[in-house]
Design brief:
The protein has 93 residues and is mainly beta. The protein has 1 helix and 7 strands.
């Protein structure tokens, strides 16, 4: 997937107000203030990700609407929020 395809979300998105697992997410947009309980990163097509909650200082924090999160690694593989809502953009359908 080239950078221009990412700009327009060519491979789709998904609304998340609970959890998304085993995904290839390259960007998260917080729609409504959200508290993350799980955030894992990994390689594209990886089944298991590495927990990055403490690495990016999300533990116990509420992230405001409008925030954009991108992974250090290739993709976010798993995301769970206990409150709020997200729009996540995926590499593949």
């Amino acid at each position: 997937m080239d950078d221009n395809s990412k700009l327009i979300g060519e491979n789709g998105c998904m609304f998340v107000d609970n959890s998304a697992t085993n995904q290839d997410i390259y960007m998260i947009t917080v729609l409504e203030a959200a508290t993350f309980t799980t955030l894992k990163e990994g390689s594209n097509k990886s089944v298991t990700g590495t927990d990055v909650m403490s690495d990016i200082n999300l533990t116990g924090k509420t992230i405001p609407a409008g925030a954009i999160l991108t992974p250090y690694d290739e993709v976010f593989t798993d995301v769970t929020v206990s409150g709020g809502s997200l729009m996540v953009y995926k590499l593949g359908k």
